[in-house]
Amino acid sequence: MTTTTVAEREDLRAAIRGFLADRLPESTVRELIDTETGVDARSWTQLAGELGLAGLLVPEEHGGQGLSTVELGIALQESGRALLGAPFLGSAVLATWALVVSGDDAAATGLLPGLADGSTVAALGIDDDPQSPVRAVPDGDGWRLTGAKRHVVDVAAADTFLVTAEVDGGVGLFVLPAAGDGVDVEQTASLDLTRRLGRVRLADVPAQRVGTEFTAGLASVRELGAFACAAEQAGIAGRCLEIAVEYARTREQFGKPIGSFQAIKHQLAEHLARVEQMRAAVTAAAAELAASPGSAREIVSVVKAYCGDAGTTVAEGLIDTLGGIGFTWEHVAHLYLRRMKTLAYLFGSPSEHRARLAADLGLTG
Amino acid sequence: MSTEVLDELRGFLDEAVPRFREQFGEDSSWETRIAWQRTMAEGGWAAPGWAVENGGRALPAHEVLAIEEVTAGYGMPPLAGMLGLKNVGPTLAAWGTPEQKEHLPRILNTEEVWCQGFSEPGAGSDLAGLRTRAVRDGDDYVVNGQKIWTSNGMHATHMELLVRTDPDAPKHRGISALLVDMSTPGIEVRPIRQINGQAEFAEVFFTDVRVPVDNLLGKENDGWNVTMTTLGHERSGVAIFATRFEREVRDLIARHRGEGLTPVQQDTLVRHFIEARVVAILGEATLSRVAAGEQPGSEQSVIKLVWSEAGQRLAATKLELAGIDAVSGAAPEAADAYLSARAMTIAAGTSPIVKNILSERVLGLPRG
Fold it and tell me: Any catalytic annotation for residue B69?
């Protein structure tokens, strides 16, 4: 794994922020909302190529940067901040990590270089529709899959699907093309307008198995997914606070900037405290996941539960500070609130992570 | 962190603690805390963050924290002269003349116990509005006025006293810091009885108290800068409280494990755990930034705000877990801790003042 210095990490942050400010202004974010996939394919190729974002987690021997959760956390904070409409989370984080931890060299050699340069976009389906969980049956050298996955992140942009299915009492990971016969992709009306979730229905679709037993791999993907959501939330919260502060300094009522009233100041100070804690918690979780992923379970739940609640409060607070203008469709505030709230539920809600902590801390017995 | 230092400390404590316990038992009275500080000072552990020439070990903040954590693990009471060791001593080291720095070894060995004469009845949050007057008369200042909420005031031999030396200057520029011997004629100390019945604070009255001009710390009318040094050390202490807070919550959880808690009680404890873990992370980040020689930013004020409010909620939860015992007199410690916790959002900057500081100095919002 490649390691970076503090200065290099700050350079990475500045490079991503500069790129996204330039290529993905709010007007573009809004245009993407009305497109079929919600993704600007050209920008994603540039993000992948110029900044190497798509290959951030891909090992160097497969054409990536081989970086860790430390750098990933920075990139995710920036993607949240910019409301990035690109399959970063779905393809470069979740699907890529599933392949990396699958231990399947052939699949890694075949797929990771394309994922790293952005020419392949994959989405990962791990959440079964309880009505029709995905079943895998052997078929010659390969398998055939039937069933449905829900809540697939960045579903519309993907050309490749990775899905899990129960095999021999364990979990298997399978890969299949998104455009094949028997594959039906349905985008759901996600609360988040800047990130598409959806359902993938498979009807006797040919697929290749990736690696062998994937139970541990799936657990690792879930931990990384929870961390990734929290990291994006920290970035979103930071931006929400900036917008609120800027407005409070310039908006005048009763002949004064509203930011001179203690009622507003104290709310914003509380949001600052939340933002600083979110950032510190994400940084600590990133370091723990990079150094000893096996013992990161506790910190992952802490950061996911904390950021889910605190981040939502900060995004709601932005609308409070803005007043009426913040309740309009035209203001960006609701796009942040929608993304923040959606992230709170992906990979375990705050209450689900608290329940996990309660069990792990021995309180439920 | 060099493990040799902690190994040396453990070696010292393994030998010193049983010997101390033999003599003092589980007592944690003021006299016992004085004796324990003397023992620690003899081992060179009373102020490991101080410069070597002042009797310390010149260790950075996070190593001092590690030392305090190890020591706390032995279950010993806090050192008596914490204000001298943590706040006044470092201020003397930064601003004192060579003669004034001679107080430092006496602070270490408990010969002197220091308090801080800052707050006044009319100057709490608005500290710079203080009115205790010092008028130059020959080689002395003559001090008249009153201080309040003086921690350890009943035990102190000396005080770092803030006085107004120029009533005509803007309020921050007319303040001076004096080093005062508490046995000087004209000083009267009265305990303040708190809501929990104890008296950890005093009010101190000054009537024509003569303080030698040599005892001026820093320049005349530059006392506000001296004060900022002291308050900076006071506030950096909260980073240490933050990491200690996590251990307190973990201990509470360990005590109630397997007790058949209700789901609501379980969730309450987990919420405390999350709060404590996150504020501890911020505390650790601040300490390592200080250790790397960086100025801590706004984190200390954030920690003060969050830690104090989380601490109050935790105290309320401890009471809740005690149930009816909490109010019937059967769980006096939980009741006392609950009452004591009301001070957390008042002392060392009230929550509203901390929010003002954060919103004006960090967020850049206009003053009201």
Answer: no
Per-residue pLDDT at B70: 87
pLDDT in tens, A300-316: 999 999 999 999 999 99
> Model confidence over B21-56: pLDDT tens digits?
999 988 889 999 999 999 999 999 999 999 999 999
Helix segments in A255-332, DSSP class H: 262-291, 297-322
Token pair in block for residue B226: 């001296």
Q: To which residue do tokens 């010993």 refer?
A: B76
Please give, rounded to a whole number of angstroms, the shortest distance from the CA of A170 to a CA of chain B.
31
- Chain B positions touching chain A (beta carbons under 8 Å): 253, 256-258, 261, 266-267, 269-271, 273-274, 277-279, 281-282, 284-285, 298-299, 302, 305-306, 352, 354-356, 358-360, 362-368
| Cβ contacts of B270 on chain A, cutoff 8 Å | 354, 357-358, 361, 363
Q: Is the pLDDT of residue B235 over 80?
A: no
Q: Model pTM? A: 0.93
- ipTM here: 0.95
Buried b (16+ CB within 10 A) or exposed e, A299-319: bbbbbbbbbbbbbbebbbbbb
The pLDDT tens digits for B314-329 are 999 999 999 999 899 9
Q: Angle at CA A279, nearest 5°, toward B284 and A115?
A: 120
- The helix (run of H) or strand (run of E) holding residue B252 is helix B223-256
Distances (CA, A) of B19 to A39, B13, B28, B74, B361: 71, 10, 15, 13, 50
Residue A364 near chain B (CB below 8 Å): yes
Residue pair B118/B163 in contact (Cβ under 8 Å)? The answer is no
Q: Is B290 helix (H, G, I), strand (E, B) or coil?
A: helix
